[in-house]
Amino acid sequence: MAILPILEIPDPILREISVPVAPDDADLPRLIADMFDTMYDAPGIGLAAIQIGVAKRLMVIDLQEEEGEDEKPVRRPRVFINPVLSEPSEELSAYNEGCLSIPEYYAEVTRPASVRAQWTDETGAAHDERLDGMLATCVQHEMDHLEGVLFTDHLSKLKRDMAMKKVLKSQRLRR
Ligand code: GNR
Ligand code: NI
Hints:
Structural class: alpha+beta
Radius of gyration: 16 Å
CATH superfamily: Peptide deformylase
Number of domains: 1
Low-confidence stretches: none
Number of strands: 7
CATH class: Alpha Beta
Helix content: 25-40%
Oligomer: single chain
CATH topology: Peptide Deformylase
Bound molecules: ligand GNR, nickel (II) ion
């Protein structure tokens, strides 16, 4: 298992459209393990394979929610292989989003509050569920990555430019 480098804007790979995962993809178990290692280390609550440079329709999510007051986050790792989203709710919900590929920039994004999601998990089991709350937001954010879309694409050009400036500056300071 390995913590892998996360691609950041303006890397053109982040704009690639990911291709379906083949049912017999032998690299999948290692890829999934590396994605969790990388996501937990970051730390983040989701990661799409393209963020580590692999253009496959695969995302991992763990909201790591705290169960009660002063309790440590409970791990609930979820794997979404070849996810399909449909039937977005009319109700919208706004979350202050961030992205590991756009470090240190956060902005409110409005998305459907719930969506129907169909996917395969790491055991090969098929799922068909209506997702809401933070999970719905995160799944939509990750789904965007599979299409080469970043959360800043949902914002004004002014905010997108601010995000790019901020990231370029932080990259300059890190190298
Ligand atoms: O860690 C992350 N937090 C987050 C917060 C609000 C909405 C979406 C996210 S996903 C992000 C990790 C990431 O970049 N996934 O692609
Ligand atoms: Ni992201």
